[in-house]
Write a structure and sequence with these properties.
This protein is mostly beta strands and about 425 residues long. About 5% of the residues lie in helices and about 45% in strands. Strands 6, 7, 8, 9, 10, 11 and 12 form a 7-stranded antiparallel beta sheet that branches. A 5-stranded antiparallel beta sheet has the order 1-25-24-23-19, with no helix packed on it. About 35% of the residues are buried.
Length: about 425
């Protein structure tokens, strides 16, 4: 057994000579939070773009059929875009809409605000009929054509002085070279009546690797604002969320971090990983959000020492992020440290669908073993073996679905390389760790 472990260890040393270290980084969204910053955990900031140059945005890769989405966002926080459904047929009333048609329909309680939990529910989707799986709010799915068609008038206000009427007429889903949104837009008075075609991929536009295409209602310009979907994990931005101030919970503009739809995040408060804690990876895009900081009345902001474990579900890579400072509206500066956790070194991984990581690595006084488990496991055996074959740690435990953490004290261990062996349902996985005091 000892020879087998040492043989596996030698392979790990050669193939995974990888040390984790904190990398300090920062992102600035500018004075008064004027920009959006798209950020990759591997590569840093990938794109900075003004956040006031768009008003509505159209999902570029919607899925159709029951329980799917065709999202249309509104820039609520930055440009004070307010969306209201007038519950009128656009075919009948778009050209002749008058102020009397809006009476009682633009009260604050009727405003449609996009979800802060998912990219798939924008303001134009919030009035969908929940009992109809083929209703998308702005339109309905046609099971014969596989396209979406809309016949609703939306009133879109920008601040207190400008208003537009918008009719999302169609989303054409096929063939591939014809995928496009068709939207009729005019000022409330009827001026600048224009039908925009927003193609997924037709020159000069190519949104095939974007989440959304954006529209500026002041110019009717179609904007390509995002980096490639594969080039970012987090978005530093302004958005609407619920916040509590002076005992009141209000919906208000906040500055914070939203995550890519292919990214999930688990929170570990107080920096230290608790023993045998189960942390769930959460898909809600505001899992990191804004409330890791607060303003005590005088500068600087107070920042929590929460560890955010970031999982990219496409690449199965893991990293951890912890904020260290926030500059507020003076510079929009987010300061943080991050650490790549890499991917697990695996001898066998068939049925368990578990990923095993260690943090930090190298470890000093404490080591956290992170086990990302798809399904609960009744019994798991963990052993840590030194380079000489001495078992320095061993435990048995059950694992819950999600991110399980086991804290191990390593202060008395000698510096060097160790082998973590995990046995789950007769499957063995191994991971190289190192200790440096």
């Amino acid at each position: 057994m000892k020879k087998r472990l040492l043989s596996i260890l030698s392979l790990l040393v050669s193939q995974f000579a990888f040390a984790q270290t904190w990398v300090y980084d920062s992102v600035s969204t500018g004075t008064s939070y004027a920009n959006d910053v798209y950020y990759s955990m591997d590569n840093g900031a990938t794109k900075t773009v003004a956040n006031n140059n768009w008003h509505i945005a159209f999902q570029m890769a919607p899925q159709f059929g029951p329980s799917s989405s065709a999202s249309i966002l509104a820039n609520h926080a930055v440009n004070n875009v307010q969306v209201f459904s007038l519950n009128l047929s656009a075919t009948a009333k778009f050209a002749t809409l008058t102020a009397s048609d809006t009476i009682g329909k633009t009260n604050p309680e009727r405003e449609l605000v996009g979800s802060n939990k998912t990219w798939n529910i924008g303001a134009f989707n919030k009035n969908k009929d929940q009992s109809n799986l083929f209703d998308y709010g702005w339109g309905k799915y046609n099971q014969t054509t596989n396209n979406l068609s809309g016949d609703s008038i939306y009133l879109v206000k920008i601040g207190t002085t400008t208003a537009y009427k918008i009719w999302v007429q169609e989303y054409v889903s096929h063939p591939a070279d014809s995928i496009a949104w068709k939207v009729r837009i005019a000022t409330f008075s009827g001026n600048s009546d224009t039908t925009l075609i927003i193609p997924r991929n037709k020159a000069p536009y190519n949104f095939t690797d974007r989440l959304f295409a954006y529209v500026n209602l002041g110019t009717y310009e179609i904007l390509d604002r995002e980096p490639s979907k594969s080039n970012w994990d987090l978005l530093f931005t302004r958005y609407k969320d619920t916040a509590t101030q002076m005992g009141l919970t209000l919906t208000m503009n906040v500055s914070g971090v939203l995550q890519h739809p292919n990214v999930s995040v688990a929170e570990a408060p107080n920096a230290a990983m608790p023993t045998l804690a189960n942390l769930s990876f959460i898909d809600s895009i505001n899992t990191i959000g804004y409330d890791w900081k607060y303003f005590p009345g005088t500068y600087p902001y107070v920042v929590s020492n929460t560890n955010y474990f970031v999982k990219n579900k496409n690449t199965n890579t893991y990293s951890v992020l912890q904020f260290t400072a926030f500059g507020g509206s003076a510079n929009g500066l987010y300061t943080f440290k991050k650490q790549s956790l890499g991917t697990t070194a695996i001898t066998r991984q068939v049925n368990n669908k578990a990923t095993i990581l260690t943090f930090p690595n190298p470890a000093n006084e404490n080591l956290s073993i992170l086990l990302d488990v798809v399904h609960p496991i009744a019994q798991a055996q963990l052993s840590i073996v030194s380079l000489t074959g001495v078992v320095v740690y061993q435990t048995g435990t059950s694992l819950q679905a999600g991110l399980n953490t086991i804290s191990v004290g390593t202060a008395e261990w000698a510096n060097g390389i160790y082998l973590l062996q995990t046995k789950m349902n007769d499957e063995i996985q191994v991971q190289k760790i190192s200790i440096q005091h």
